[in-house]
Design brief:
It is a multi-pass membrane protein. Residues 251-369, 673-790 form the ABC3 transporter permease C-terminal domain. InterPro entries: ABC3_permease_C (IPR003838), Lipoprotein-release_system (IPR051447). The chain crosses the membrane at residues 12-35, 247-273, 294-321, 341-362, 391-410, 416-438, 471-491, 670-693, 714-736, 763-788. By secondary structure, the chain is α+β, with helices and mostly antiparallel strands. 56% of the residues lie in helices and 16% in strands. The strands form five sheets. Strands 5, 6, 7, 8, 9, 10, 11 and 12 form an eight-stranded mixed beta sheet that branches. The protein has a six-stranded mixed beta sheet with strand order 17-18-22-19-21-20. Strand 5 (101-104) and strand 6 form a beta hairpin. It is elongated, with a radius of gyration of 33 Å. It starts with a helix and ends in a 5-residue tail after the last helix. Residues 377-383 have low confidence and may be disordered.
């Protein structure tokens, strides 16, 4: 009952913590709903397949399951016959996907899924699509297309395939995406068998068919059914899902940290302002554990109420976040929204946990003070900083320093997360250790004004000396807001300079032929640019030195140094993985399921530009007919006079900028979203902190007013003190992320082979600092003015 009464009577003091939990839970709820809604499901194109038989799965260098090892035609034929003979199976179909993309008016039709848009006609029976007009293809030059393409039956259509542009006669249209060729044509484009679709007779259960198919397939592969069929996803969908997961994961992590940070600082400050009340409870017999239980109960109740409101807000804002992600192109096509129970329960549990976790420090602070001491009028702090707080601050500082050093050494894909974690640790350290520097810094800043003889600087200096921990609590939200704004905007600016500069340096003296509206360069493009590096990527399946089947990214090269029949050139790490040396032989399995015995021609130092597993280009093309060539790097003296449709020619700088443009767009948006979260939370904390402090000092204001202080002077005093606290917090916020930024710049220097220093975004930093100053000052002045006005009202008799 006491907990409920306290929350009801002191609701304004708990408002900021409630809002922080509400916003945090809303963000977490929204991100979990988006994540749950974006989980892979069976492709619509395979909806009619009762089950899918797929080959065994290889692992990558880190041991993570990755690509499946295609069956060869010879291996797939008996398997097809055996599956077709299973009772209850109506038909079996080899499903193939390869590159196909129409060109209209000489330009490729925009299609994110073009890399896997081509199929054999037999695959059409697996989809809920049907012929709208015309008939099925019967010859190699015939094709069936999506009616949305707007091409009439009987007309000629230019289609880009791996070999290049080719003319096909449209003999039919279907009411779904894709290009459908004859099965023989599809088998030539994609000879390896990656999936066999099983269609059951009517009335036969999927579970029965799946069980029988598993007994037939045995250890030759796996049978997928139901939601398990979602394992087969187009590459572009998987990439979009990965990017979206990274973005919402970073958003949720920052929201969680900031929520805990803000709630903890708010509850500590609120508890400090209730010292007399808590002291009275202790005086009448309340035990320390009862006080702690009361504070934790209040926080738990606030967390529960904020979580319930946050869940409702999160459900309402989920469509907005989905639309933002769709606009960035980081969600699967046509993502729906489903609101399951687990995201709501998870977010609620996090909200309540955050409230209780944030109250732990407040509870420890409350029970440390003796009853009679809490009833005295002296400041809250007998010591500037307690021993546990000092230990915690130094521990966070040490952890932040270690993470700062690690930022320069970790892999590129984890560098950003490491820098964020380092800044989080340093922000916590700054908040815990701030009382040690708030007083000295404040006295140093007010020293010039104190010599003028004005009372305001003396009062501000006295306040900072008397209660430096309160000032540190007020500065903490500013430190967090400015710190994350500096880090996130600085990371963005540093990467914007580093990556294009490093790429341009590598490509000096070259022009680059890049795909323009297509997923890669065809053989027609390669033939039109006979000079320069034209890497043809493929998947190579090998046994490592422990016998584990591993998939490696291999490159087919036309460079005379590496283009040797029957030979492979390996980087040192790959040679160590396979346990081979120059002169050894090793068996390689290709995308068509064929195995080839190759001699290791050379083992060279690792070089990303060359590749870790280099093969003759003709060998790769023979075993992977559907592979597309990467960017072609041509000496500037051999610059092509014209570009093949679907390509563009850039110089080194233009290529570097364009190559980074997509990443820059994503990082710009991520930066803006994360800064908005950090600054928004901190704004709530600042406004509430200033309001609570001003309200809690109403007796002090009354004394100063009775001593002759005018309303104008008291408002100026409140504004000056707040401005000083914000300045100290902003200074700490500027210092905190410099180490992680420097570590990140050092790592980028190594990765790009260019001299990169930390870069800041002055406009963003200035906007955050000025916004924090305006918000905090306005809150303090408004509450001080209202408090003075309330004190001036005549007492009713």
């Amino acid at each position: 009952m006491l907990i409920l009464a306290n929350v009801r009577e002191r609701w304004s003091g708990f408002l900021a913590a409630f809002l922080a939990v509400l916003i945090g839970v809303a963000l977490i709820t929204t991100t979990l709903i988006i994540y749950d809604s974006a989980r892979p499901g069976p492709q619509p194109r395979l909806a009619a397949a009762t089950a899918l038989a797929v080959p065994e799965q290889a692992v990558d260098r880190d041991g993570t399951p990755r690509d499946r090892v295609p069956w060869s035609r010879r291996e797939a034929r008996p398997l097809l016959d055996e599956l077709a003979a299973v009772p209850g199976v109506a038909s079996v179909t080899v499903d193939r996907s390869f590159y196909a993309q129409a060109l209209t008016h000489g330009e490729p039709v925009e299609d994110e899924g073009a890399l896997e848009a081509g199929h054999g006609w037999s695959s059409a029976r697996l989809a809920p699509y049907g012929l709208v007009t015309g008939r099925a293809p019967a010859a190699a030059h015939e094709i069936v297309v999506d009616r949305a393409l707007g091409v009439a039956t009987g007309t000629e259509l230019t289609v880009n395939i791996t070999a290049g542009r080719a003319e096909f006669r449209v003999v039919g249209t279907v009411n779904g995406p894709g290009y459908y060729f004859t099965d023989d044509f599809a088998a030539r484009q994609e000879p390896g068998v990656g999936a066999i679709a099983i269609i059951a007779d009517k009335g036969v259960s999927a579970a029965d068919i799946t069980a029988k198919a598993e007994s037939v397939v045995g250890d030759r592969g796996t049978v997928l059914s139901g939601d398990g069929r979602s394992a087969l996803q187009p590459a572009h969908v998987e990439h979009q899902r990965f990017l979206g997961t990274q973005l919402i994961g970073a958003l949720a992590a920052l929201a969680l940290f900031t929520t805990v940070f803000v709630v903890a600082s708010m509850l500590v400050l609120a508890t400090g302002l209730r010292r007399r009340e808590i002291g009275l409870l202790r005086t009448i017999g309340a035990a320390p554990h009862q006080i702690r239980r009361m504070i934790l109960g209040e926080a738990g109740l606030i967390g529960l109420l904020g979580s319930l409101a946050g869940c409702l807000a999160g459900v309402g804002t989920a469509p907005l976040l989905r639309d933002i992600l769709q606009g960035l192109g980081v969600t699967p096509p046509e993502p729906g929204l489903r609101v399951a129970l687990w995201p709501l329960l998870t977010a609620t549990a996090i909200g309540v946990g955050v409230g209780v976790l944030g109250a732990l420090a407040a509870g420890r602070t409350a029970v440390r003070v003796a009853p009679i001491e809490a009833l005295l009028d002296k400041g809250a702090n007998s010591r500037t900083i307690s021993r546990p707080r000092r230990i915690g601050g130094l521990t966070a500082l040490g952890l932040g320093a270690l993470l700062t050093v690690a930022t320069a050494a970790v892999r590129a894909d984890t560098r950003i997360n490491t820098a964020i974690l380092a800044t989080m640790a340093l922000v916590v350290a700054a908040a815990l250790l701030a009382p040690l520097c708030v007083g000295p810094v404040g006295r140093a800043l007010t020293s010039p004004f104190a010599r003028l003889g004005s009372a305001a600087p003396l009062l501000v200096r006295a306040e900072l000396r008397a209660d430096s921990r309160r000032a540190a609590s007020l500065a903490a939200p500013v430190t967090a807001a400015v710190g994350f704004a500096v880090l996130l905007s600085g990371m963005n600016e540093t990467m914007r300079v580093a990556y294009p500069a490093g790429e341009a340096l590598k490509l000096t003296g070259q022009v680059i032929v890049t795909p323009d509206g297509t997923p890669g360069n065809t053989d027609e493009v390669v033939a039109a640019n006979p000079v320069g590096r034209a890497a043809l990527p493929t998947r190579a399946f090998v046994r490592d030195k422990d016998g584990t089947l591993t998939v490696i990214d291999a490159l087919g090269s036309r460079d005379p140094r590496w283009n040797r029949p029957g030979r492979a050139v390996l980087g040192r790490k790959t040679a160590d993985l396979l346990g081979v040396k120059a002169g050894d032989e090793h068996t390689v399995r290709f995308a068509d399921g064929a195995t080839v015995r190759l001699r290791i021609g050379q083992v060279l130092p690792d070089d990303p530009a060359r590749g870790d597993f280099v093969l003759p280009r003709q060998l790769v093309r023979a075993h992977d007919p559907s592979a597309l060539t990467d960017d072609i790097f041509v000496p500037a003296a051999s610059r092509p006079e014209s570009a093949v449709p679907g390509t563009a020619v850039h110089d080194a700088v233009r290529h570097a900028l364009d190559d980074y443009a997509t990443d820059a767009r994503l990082t710009d948006t991520l930066t803006a979203m994360l800064i908005a979260v950090a600054v928004g939370y901190s704004g709530i904390a600042m406004a509430n902190s200033m309001a609570m402090t001003a309200h809690g000092r109403r007796r002090d204001l009354a004394v100063m007013k009775s001593a002759g202080g005018t309303v104008r002077q008291l408002l100026l005093f409140a504004a000056a003190e707040t401005s000083l606290v914000v300045t100290v917090g902003a200074a700490l916020g500027l210092l905190v992320p410099l180490g992680p930024l420097a570590g990140m710049a050092s790592g980028l220097s190594q990765a790009t082979s260019t001299e990169v220093g930390p870069h800041l975004n002055p406009l963003t930093i200035a906007a955050v600092i000025l916004g924090s100053l305006a918000l905090a000052t306005a809150s303090s002045v408004v509450v001080t003015w209202r408090t003075l006005r309330r004190e001036n009202r005549p007492t009713r008799r």
